[in-house]
Design goal:
about 45% strand, two-stranded antiparallel sheet, mainly beta, disordered C terminus
């Protein structure tokens, strides 16, 4: 099924989605992750709750949605390679580095 999106000025900032003739509106937390998708009548279609590392604690979806967690969270920090000091990735846990 095809969807149309209205995006805001930020990176990965969907504001609304049209799917199968219905409009849905995005709601975000302070980190920019989607917490809800509501219908035009203000009822909740999808709800997302995240753990401390940006993974889903719970996820309820009535509508297919391509956007959810941004992966941005306060515990993320760069992992550096011990040999050359280059940044490998960002990880919320040092043991992942």
């Amino acid at each position: 099924m095809v969807a149309r999106y209205v995006h805001g000025p930020g990176i990965d900032e969907p504001l609304a989605m049209s799917r199968a003739g219905s409009w849905y509106y995005y709601h975000f937390d302070g980190l920019g992750s989607v917490t809800m998708l509501t219908r035009a009548d203000k009822t909740i279609a999808n709800r997302y709750v995240y753990d401390d590392f940006g993974g889903f604690r719970s996820r309820t979806e009535a509508v297919t949605n391509a956007y959810a967690s941004t992966g941005r969270h306060p515990l993320a920090r760069p992992c550096q390679d011990a040999d050359d000091g280059q940044t490998k990735s960002e990880s919320p846990r040092r043991e992942d580095c």
